[in-house]
Amino acid sequence: MSFVDANTHVRGESLYLDDLPVVTGTLYACVYSSPVAHGRIRSLDYTAALTMPGVVRVLTAADITGENQIGGIVPDEPLLATDTVDFWGMPIALVIAESDETARAAVHAIQAEIEPLPVITDPREACAQGHLIVPPRTFRLGDAEAAFGACDFVIEGRADSGGQEHLYLETHGAYAIPLENGHIKLYSSTQGPTAVQRTVARVLGVPMHQIEVDVTRLGGGFGGKEDQANSWAALVSLATHRLRRPVKYVLHRMEDLRMSGKRHPYSSDFRIGLTKDLKIQAYQVTFYQNAGASADLSPAVMERTLFHANNTYFIPNLTATAYSCRTNLPSNTAFRGFGGPQAMFVIESAIAKAAEALGVATTDIQRANLLQEGDEFHYGQRAEGCEALHCWTDAEERFDLAQLRQEADDFNAHNALNKKGIAMMPICFGISFTKKWMNQASALVHIYTDGSVGVSTGAVEMGQGVNMKMMQVAAQCLSVGLERIRLETTNTTRIANTSPSAASATSDLNGKALQLACQTLTERLIAVARIKLGVKENQTVQLQDEQIWVDGQPGGLTWPQLIQEAYQQRVNLSEHAHYATPDIHFDTTTEKGHPFAYHVYGTAIVGVTLNCLRGTYVFDYVKVSHDFGKSMNTLVDRGQAEGAIVQGIGWMTLEDLQYNAAGKLLSNALSTYKIPDIYAVPQEIDVHFLDTPGSDYAIMRSKAVGEPPLMYGIGAYFALRNAIRAFVPDAELSFSAPLTPEKVLLALYPAFNPTLVPQTAGKASA
Ligand code: MTE
Ligand code: HPA
Ligand code: MOS
């Protein structure tokens, strides 16, 4: 069994929030949201909505019993708008009705008079006007300014990357049920049950123990539900708190697209300095992050952008500065990679531009600067267990890069209208939450008297396979079959104070806690066996394959018998354990420390064939040598790598979020926002599991896998760029993702309109 949910998934029997049986008396909520991106609310009229049959109540900020505030890092985000609205889609009021249809219909009967205020959608413009979420930060190694003077070549440029819609299959939603004494049981489609619990308690003005949050699984999160499930949960809970009735809200796709935040678009300036031997001596980068209307997770995302400014290269003199810019867009949020991919796109752009200026292959610069064991990152940590070169050379040799190049060159020599392009994309991604305190987790294990086992952790299953991995950890530690183990829902009453399932660290953190709990139980059970079997001091007792072994021989006590014996002896068959990643620290005054438990490395070779008449393209292959460590589940890990690669390609080449100058989302449906489909998937994805030792901090030495492979998608951008160059060798190409077929076509024929060099994405305005 590779994936515990596979059976119920294929039968359509897996339960998501909207599948939970609805309790009698349940009411339905729907948000009335701002029809403009920035303005002052002059009046709000919902009398017509209230008179509609079936409408129970319309709630506004005035009905909030606690704080009208959901900002987790910066208190700058009201749950419901009061005097101003700051983005198109900002919740203003909540209709509560007897049916979902009635609630939605009533929303259309609400009217607000809003005096328009200036709309800013561009991060550079926001920055110029001083609209920053938090003060800028700068990370430094060496002295870039001085080092540029000693460089043979200095190249400058700009790189823009667009946002990305999470498009989890299951939209946001929450369902609150009132219990006695004001308690609320809340079902939420969230990666962060504790964040939901904390936010709801804050908005209602009640202690956290009044709120129980339960999560069975998500139909995808991708970061979009790390923090942004909070508002929907708080809204339904507010209604339940006021009305003492169950209240449910599951967003329609277009509501979700309009109201929820996305990956941060970034606009960046770079300057890169190299010596004749192609060593990068200096790199200076300024990131303008488009944060949207409120902080949400933007400061943490910005921090990870700074951490990953160098991707997988050693750059002795580096200065990276980041601005988190407040704009009138929905608040952008966590998205697979958490700001890392945006930083890596910039350094890869800088290297590509330098290669073009110097007339050398991009790969020559990449290869000459790969991190080596002991190299210092600009944040103080040193590369330990560095696999950068190993991954690169393995990819080069295993997949015969020289041959791939030869094939592409031959093809290009013989084809006038189709061109091939190839790019290498090496990656390095730090594993740990960048906030030290978030690197903790708990687990609770019950062994029932029949020998079956119930496991609870803080991990949320969102399709990434964490439940399967937790079952494997428990089965291995207790030496029992997987069929004895059941993964419980994620519940704040069973496991408190959880970090969100995020940062690719869920299996590491929760798995280590689970190991500790299982180890304690095993020790206890072995002590029971020793007494029961009358084992002598000098004899060894082991639990293996569901039975007790004494000095390597079957001891005559099976798992069920052992559990019965322990129970009869009144031995505790439950255990709760807590884990905190050791040895990590970071000092934000010096911007130095040891923030990551370990790094994940890998290298991809991406090949594309471009149709130069149409601007359409097919990715021929993505061939990867990846550092999984000792993968504990190769099917799950391969699935994560493949999914992440396709999602990365979507971000870089297809998914074009467009807001107009008034801040309205134009790409507001799947007809106008293109995510990868089966035709966008590379013809071949070949992921090689490189033989690497893993890390002590990785669960069973199986390295974190959720986010890192997404960044191979950046290789798709540069492969495509190289294919364009094969057609128009001297084209002036900007660095502006996504490189959509439309932009490719314009780049292929610059003579038709020299002003049409791709330049719009990344900037939110159209
Ligand atoms: N895979 C699936 N199928 N669905 C998801 O929502 N989220 C990604 C990644 N893989 C996601 C996914 C993100 S953003 C992260 S941080 C990790 O999974 C979280 O899970 P992990 O910590 O267990 O890797
Ligand atoms: N990744 C994901 N979520 C986070 C992080 C991170 O590094 N830091 C804080 N929240
Ligand atoms: Mo992932 S962006 O850390 O949820």
From TrEMBL:
InterPro entries: Ald_Oxase/Xan_DH_a/b, Ald_Oxase/Xan_DH_a/b_sf, Ald_Oxase/xanthine_DH-like, AldOxase/xan_DH_MoCoBD1, AldOxase/xan_DH_MoCoBD2, AldOxase/xan_DH_Mopterin-bd_sf. It comes from the Bacteria. SUPFAM superfamilies: CO dehydrogenase molybdoprotein N-domain-like, Molybdenum cofactor-binding domain. SMART domains: Ald_Xan_dh_C (SM01008). Pfam families: Ald_Xan_dh_C, MoCoBD_1, MoCoBD_2. Keywords: Molybdenum, Oxidoreductase. Residues 11-118 form the Aldehyde oxidase/xanthine dehydrogenase a/b hammerhead domain. Gene3D superfamilies: Aldehyde oxidase/xanthine dehydrogenase, a/b hammerhead, Aldehyde oxidase/xanthine dehydrogenase, molybdopterin binding domain. PANTHER family: ALDEHYDE OXIDASE 1-RELATED, XANTHINE DEHYDROGENASE. This is Xanthine dehydrogenase molybdopterin binding subunit. It comes from Nibrella saemangeumensis. The gene is xdhB.
